[in-house]
Amino acid sequence: MNNLINTKLGRLRILAILEGISLLILVGVAVPLKHVGNDPSLVKIIGPVHGLLFLLFIVNTLSVGVEQNWKFSTLTWKVLLACIIPFGTFYIDRKILSKINPS
Description:
By secondary structure, this protein is mostly helical. Helix content is 77%, strand content 0%.
């Protein structure tokens, strides 16, 4: 875990997992509780947390893409797309990010 924190790519991988978890909690727990249970409190907490993680993921993806000389049309767009699809960041971490050597 310590090695992940020391590189931009490692931090992006951590953000990918956190963003993915926050999206799943938001759409799988908080939103149903809001609409079925008439309790919006969890959405009010998880929503902004997910929003922040989402933005951090996007900024870090672009930063790593520049650092690693990713071609936008072949790699960067796939990583960016992953953050709007449930389970997408987990998939992209396993299939792409984990196989890239950090600079």
